[in-house]
Amino acid sequence: MAPVSTFPFNSASDPDSSSDNSPIYVSSPSGLSLLNTVSSLPSLLQTAFHSPVQINQANCGIATTASLLNTLLHPPLSPSSPSSPPPLTVPPTTSYSPYPYYTQSSIRSTPCTSQILNTPPFSTLDGVETPPYGMTLTQISDLLSCHIPPSYTSKILTTSTPYPLFTKTLNSCFSNPTCRVGVNFLRTSLSQPGGGHWSPLLKTHSNYYALIDVAKYKEPYIYFITPEMLYNSIDNVDDCGVWDWPSAQDGLSEEEREGGVDENVKEKLGCIPHKRGIVMVYE
Predict the structure, then answer these.
(1) pLDDT, tens digit, for every residue of 61-87?
(2) Helices 60-73 and 137-145 sit at what angle, rounded to 10 degrees?
(3) Where is this region: Disordered (predicted)?
(4) Residue 206: which residues within 8 A CB-CB, separation 6 or more?
(5) How would CATH label the architecture of 22-282?
(6) Which of 17, 138, 176, 198 could cross-link with 22 by S-S, CB 3.0 to 4.6 Å?
(7) Is the pTM value of this prediction over 0.85?
(8) First-to-last C-alpha distance (Å) of the chain
């Protein structure tokens, strides 16, 4: 992991966006100005409150899923919000009982999700923390479908959709108060160190979205990006965006399960390059 001091928003200089692909961090003067003009401040605050810190660097997808589900379970207090939360399938948690709440551990504990994640009791592994590490678009979509009611839809959107239609589709989702969005983007496309990453996304202005980064140890974790920046951040390929999950992980040796994702491991997993993108959930 790169030292925290290498992150642009931890430098001594003011982290205003000075290049076309740099986000505007909320701690900067420009970021504070944008924060003061957010069109959906209750939604922004609610998502920030309910976005957990990912428990390790492979679990950004799990943390993002927990955030999206918890904001459905506890919608923001605004006139456009549903009068009551949808009937979600919330796994019990000993930590918070009797209050319903999704955690990165409880999401793993249902029969539906354990098959998607290749975790106990379905497997002796933790598929998220085994090569290829993390979660694909399809896995996140299926994971959300384990918990949302039948009236809700989980939809994947990539840059295979042309930019005008992509933006129109995404903004149409955001016009629905039940819409929740998770993004799988490439950090370097936003001038950040790192690789592929998941985080929740909100629409905050006519020309800005906000990412609520679940890697909160890389503060400030709220930053604004333009629609063009969003599109460019997912307009790239995950080398193992599709693979033979979950069964292929069982064929890895003990050494391979704890190592990196080299070409031999990719071949065993049946890795196929696939575009990054977003997952939308809405009624």
Answers:
(1) 999 999 999 999 998 866 666 667 788
(2) 30
(3) 1-24
(4) 39
(5) Alpha-Beta Complex (3.90)
(6) 17
(7) yes
(8) 38
